[in-house]
Amino acid sequence: MKVEVLTNNEKRDVQQKIIAKLRDLIEYKNLEPGDKLPSERMLSEKFGVSRSNIRESIQKLEFYGILYSKPQSGTFIADIGRVAMSGMMEDILGLEEPDFKSLVETRILLELKTVRLAALRRTDEDLEAMRSALDAYKSKVLNKEDAVEEDLLFHLAIAKASKNSSMNTFMLIITPEIITNFEKYHVCDSNQSFKGIQEHEDIFQAIKDQDPKRAKEMMKVHFKVLYQYCYHSDN
Amino acid sequence: MKVEVLTNNEKRDVQQKIIAKLRDLIEYKNLEPGDKLPSERMLSEKFGVSRSNIRESIQKLEFYGILYSKPQSGTFIADIGRVAMSGMMEDILGLEEPDFKSLVETRILLELKTVRLAALRRTDEDLEAMRSALDAYKSKVLNKEDAVEEDLLFHLAIAKASKNSSMNTFMLIITPEIITNFEKYHVCDSNQSFKGIQEHEDIFQAIKDQDPKRAKEMMKVHFKVLYQYCYHSDN
DNA sequence: CAAACCAATCTGGTTAACCAATTTGGTCAA
DNA sequence: TTGACCAAATTGGTTAACCAGATTGGTTTG
After folding, report:
1. Which residues touch strand D (CB under 7 A)?
2. Chain A residues with beta carbon closer than 8 angstroms to that of B99
C-alpha cells in the first residue's frame, strides 16, 4: 500500500473525519451504552483508513470518556446515553485551539481558586515545596536572570497544595502554552520581576497563615498586569 | 521476543517509569530547550522497553507541551527551560486520578465563570442551541424520563457560548466522569429534575438578557444541591 | 435436559518491517 | 577557500504480521 506522510493539520483532519463517521455509525446502528463497536480492523476497512488512525481516534474518545476498550474483547460505548454522547462528539469536533486570551482567562480563574484551597488545605510539606520554589525564584531575580520558569513552578506548587487533582492537571496543561506566549509577547519585564518577589512572598505568607481570603487577594494583586490582556471583572 | 499483555495499571506504571527515566536522562545530559532527544529506537533499547511504550510516553509529554516531534527528524525539548521542565515532569508523575469532590469543585468553578462569559458573549446561534437543549431536557423531565444527559448538554451549550476554548475543553473532560458519579451516587432524583426546569429557564433568560451577574446567581442556585458534596464557600 | 467443556474464531495489544523526508558528511567545481 | 550538490545514514511515521486472552457456538457428558 502507498505510504503517505501527513502534516499535523492533515492528521487532525483525518481524525476529525473518523470521529464524525463513528458518530454517524453509532447514530445509524442505534448503539447504546455498553454496546460493542465493530472491531478496529473492520472499521479501518469500512472507513478506508489505516488501523492506526482508527486506534488514535478511539483513544481520543476514550480520553473524553465516551468509549472504553477491553483487551482481547472489543471497544464499547461508555455509560453515558446516546444523546449525551452524540452531543459531546459534536462539541469535540467543534473544539478549536485555545487562543492566548482564553488561556489567561482560564489561568486566572484556576489560580484564584487553587490559592484559596491551598490556604485551607496545605500541609507542612506543601509549605516547604513552595518555600524552596520561591527561594529559587528570588535568587534568580536578584541575579537579574530570567525567572519565568521559577515563577511558574511556584504557582504549580500552589496548585499541588490545593489538593484538587483536576485543577492541578488543568494548570499543568495550560502552563507550557502560557510560558510560550509570555515569552512571545514579553509579558514579563525585569522590573516586573522585582515587584513579583514581594507579591510571591505575600501569597506565601497568606497560605502559611491559612488565610484564604488574603491569599486570594494577594494573588489578584499579582495578576493585575495580566488583567490588561483579558478584561476581567471581579466576581 | 516474548509478548506480554499488561493490565491498564501495569501499563501506566511502565509509562511513569519511562517518563522518570526521560527526566533523569535530560538532567544527566543537561539537555536544553531545542536540543534533540535520542531516537525512539535508541531509547527503547536503552530503557529495555518497546518502541511503542516510548512513543506513548513521548506523546504524553507532547500533550503537556514539554516535548515536540518533527517527522523524519527527531524529538526535541520544547521552549521551556530545564528547571520548569524538570518540575513539571515531577508534577506529572505525581498526578493522581481526580476524586469526585475535586470534579464537583472544578465543575462549579468552571460553570460559574462560563455562564458569566456566555451572558456577555453569546450569539444568536448560541442562544438557539441552548434553547433546543433546554427544550429537549424539559420534554424528557415532563415525561418522567431520566434527563441527566440533556441536563448536561444544556450546560455544555453554555460552555460553548462562553467562547473560551480552554474552559470548554475542560468541561468536556470532566463531564463524563461527573455523569458516571452522579448515577453512582444518585445525586439527581426526579423531583429535583422538576425544580431543574425552572432553574435552567432562569439561567437561559439571564444569558439571553446578557445579564452576567444574574446568570451567575441563577447558576449558583442551580448548584445548591451540589454544594453539600463539596463544602464550598462563596467568593 | 442442562451444565460443563472445548476448540475455532475474533479481539485489542504488541512487535517488527517498511517508507519517505530530513540530516549529514564528504566531494567536487568555481 | 567556499559554496553547491549528492548519496548514505538516521529519523519519526505508517503498515503489516503476530500474540495471547476473551468470546462463542457446538458437542459431550452427567
Report:
1. A 1, 3-6, 11, 50-53, 70-73; B 2-3, 5, 37-42, 55, 69-75
2. 165
Name which of A79, A116, A179 is nearest B80 (Cβ-Cβ).
Answer: A179
* HEC letters along A69-122: EECCCEEEECCCCHHHHHHHHHHHHHCCCCCHHHHHHHHHHHHHHHHHHHHHHC
pTM of model > 0.80: yes
Q: Which is more confidently placed, B103 or A192? A: B103
Give residue-wise pLDDT tens across range B201-220: 999 999 999 999 999 999 99
- Contact between A70 and A81 under an 8 Å Cβ cutoff? The reply is no
Given an 8 Å threshold on Cβ–Cβ distance, is B149 in contact with A176? Answer: no
Cell of A161: 497544595
Residues of B in contact with A177 (CB under 8 A): 65
Side-chain-side CA neighbours of A183 within 13 Å: the count stands at 14
- Alpha-carbon gap, residue B100 to B118, rounded angstroms: 26
Residue nearest to nucleotide C20 (CA to C1'): A5
CA distance B49 to B10: 13
* Residues constituting chain B: 235
Give the distance, in angstroms, between residue A61 CA and nucleotide D26 C1': 37
Residue B22 and residue A151: Cα distance in Å, rounded? 24
How much is the ipTM here?
Answer: 0.87
Written as nine digits, the cell of B129 is 442551541
Q: Interior CA angle at B165 toward B162 and B169, to 5°?
A: 105
Å separating the CA of residue B201 from the C1' of nucleotide D7:
71
Q: In this predicted model, what pLDDT tens digit does every residue of B78-104 receive, in sequence order?
A: 878 777 888 888 888 888 888 989 999
Q: Which residue ranges form the domains of chain B, and what is each CATH number?
A: 8-94 (1.10.10.10), 100-227 (1.20.120.530)
